[in-house]
Amino acid sequence: MNLKIVTLPGDGIGPEVLNQGVKVIRTIEKKYNHKIEVLEGIIGGIAIDKFGTPLPLETLEICKESDAILLGAVGGPKWDNLPGNLRPEKALLELRGGFNFFANIRPIKIFEPLTFSSTLKPEILKDADFVIIRELTGGLYFGKPKERRVENGEELAIDTMIYRTSEIERIAHIAFETAIQRRKKVTSVDKANILECSRLWREVVEKVSPKYPSVTLEHMYVDNCAMQIVRNPRQFDVILTENTFGDILSDEAAIITGSIGMLPSASLGEGKKGLYEPIHGSAPDIAGKNIANPLGTILSVAMMFRYSFNLKEEADDIEKAVSRIVSEGYFTQDLFQNNPNAKKLVSTEEMGNLICREIQGGAN
């Protein structure tokens, strides 16, 4: 296949982990005889420093011409005091909204050797395997009005949560279709006892549900879901939820994998183009030290081959390589401590090289 991928390294550890993802892409390209063009764009805080905007027009244009986008991370303390429309994170919202990437898919699965890297008990984690389907272009992050103003001499801030029936319907269909391929259960998460948006959310999901008679639907309040994820994660198959709740729950669920550095994600729209990124932040405190975990990025590359390119064998090859290297006890710093399965501490770059070695040797 002839493929065009845009990489957006961003800030902090973004460039370090993304470099390992690109190495994996090149390894797959060679092994499967694909022709892959990899372009690089500037985004986030570094773009603000250079161009005065978190998402320069040039970056947006090359993203439009690509088949998929691979992102590192954006943000950092340096830019925390900027106005909201100039913060690095604004670039992510513009990419998601501009390309209508309305569905975020975050798989949560424990690799058995990493059980002891989590703060949860191994017996709680055993066989945990679920997917969070997060609506990505609605809710508080995109609703208007969104502003700060002064009334009666006092400053106030306004964020608006808005959801339309059509937005809820399309993400619900993705959740039910995902469940059909798994264990046929959807847990729709809301706050319908308080929020009008959540009441509409629940009503719409109920209307979509009969179209998938083989899938069981249950509803759960978000506060209860947050508790249940750490109490009994095995009960979940597909979690469906709105933008803000999904953002928080998926970060919480990182505890199941042992490290937030293990979690990949895919943001998808109506077409094949997608935005792929690890869910961790820019981690400026460890940037440049070659100790960040690149597996979330590498697993995001696997999702890219699966969802945007429909190359299942290549995706499986990457995922099996990750599984094998972890099973051999090669861990980055975030996973190494207090884990009896850890045999060798490896750097960011060493981990990328190990995964590529496994792919070259035929991890499938």
Features:
364 residues, alpha/beta, Isopropylmalate Dehydrogenase, 2 domains, ten-stranded mixed beta sheet, two-stranded antiparallel sheet, 14 helices
What does this protein look like?
This protein is an alpha/beta fold. The protein has two domains: 216 residues, Isopropylmalate Dehydrogenase (3-Layer(aba) Sandwich), CATH 3.40.718; 130 residues, Isopropylmalate Dehydrogenase (3-Layer(aba) Sandwich). A ten-stranded mixed β-sheet has the order 2-1-3-12-11-4-5-10-8-9, sandwiched between helices. A two-stranded antiparallel ribbon has the order 6-7. β6 and β7 form a beta hairpin. α6 crosses α7.
Write the layout of secondary structure elements.
Layout: E1 2-10, H1 14-32, E2 35-40, H2 45-51, H3 57-64, E3 68-73, H4 89-98, E4 103-109, H5 122-125, E5 129-135, E6 147-151, E7 154-158, H6 165-180, E8 185-190, H7 196-208, E9 216-221, H8 222-231, E10 238-241, H9 243-252, H10 254-257, E11 266-268, E12 274-276, H11 295-307, H12 312-327, E13 330-331, H13 333-336, E14 344-345, H14 348-361
Parallel strand pairs: 1-2, 1-3, 3-12, 5-10, 8-9, 8-10, 13-14
Antiparallel strand pairs: 4-5, 4-11, 6-7, 11-12
Helix pairs in contact: 1-11, 1-14, 6-7, 11-12, 12-14
Strand arrangement in the largest pleated sheet = 2-1-3-12-11-4-5-10-8-9
Largest beta-sheet details: 10 strands, mixed
What's the shape? globular
Oligomerization state: single chain
Give the end-to-end Cα distance, rounded to a whole number of Å: 20 Å
Spans of at least 5 consecutive residues with low confidence = none
CATH topology heading of the largest domain: Isopropylmalate Dehydrogenase
What helical percentage do the residues reach? 40-55%
Strand and helix order: EHEHHEHEHEEEHEHEHEHHEEHHEHEH
Domain count: 2
Overall pLDDT score: 95
Number of helices: 14
What is the CATH architecture assignment of the largest domain?
3-Layer(aba) Sandwich
